[in-house]
Specification:
This protein is an alpha/beta fold and 234 residues long. The protein contains 7 helices and 9 strands. The longest helix is centred in the last third of the chain and has 19 residues. Bound molecules: hypoxanthine (HPA).
Amino acid sequence: MTIHIGAKPGDIAETVLLPGDPLRAQWAAETFLDSPVLVNEVRGMLGYTGTWRGNRVTIHGTGMGMPSLSIYANELITEYDAQTLIRIGSCGAMQDHVGLRDVILAMSCTSLSTPSRGILREVNFAPCADWSLLRAAATAAEGKGTATHVGGIYSADVFYDERPDLNEQMVRHGILGVEMEAAELYTLAARHQRRALAVLTVSDHLLTGQALPSTDREKSFGDMVEIALEAAFA
Ligand code: HPA
């Protein structure tokens, strides 16, 4: 047990999928894993361990934003020895050629800051995806015929952003989409020599104002979970 995770040693698999929403962790575990077992429910942050094609996998919520993700990813890495960490989440599209339901594989993450700012200080560290996972996820997405984009994303600190000029600069610099967690996940993975990737489904579009109706979300999110699982065990 750690401060925020009630799982016993050995309850967490080496491979962990990390949705922001704990109820999505439950849905993904019950939909895609064989014999999922609830291993954490401290603060309602659900985590399940089961198997996928015979491979042990944990699916664990992170909450929203980098400070919350940082708590769970730190404990999963340092206390439970998680080796491969794949964020599965939603994002807002920032380019015209990126559509609702498309998948974005985050090659790199731009941010204003991350919880790791305190140690990196003046350095503009460049958090980037693990290449083997990124390549395997691109191959898996291609095999499924999912519209997929690979490139830079923006890990923002605020959802209700009062600085439209920042988003404009992101769009101008080719950033594909915005979410709020991946930069810290990639930074932690780099620090601890683990593999990390963010597989994101576009749930809304910042340029057009479109948003995915909640009824449509499940199928799109399912593709993302399968891409993440295939990449983890490629
Ligand atoms: N902003 C930040 N995070 C997000 C968004 C957004 O528009 N959509 C999904 N996650």
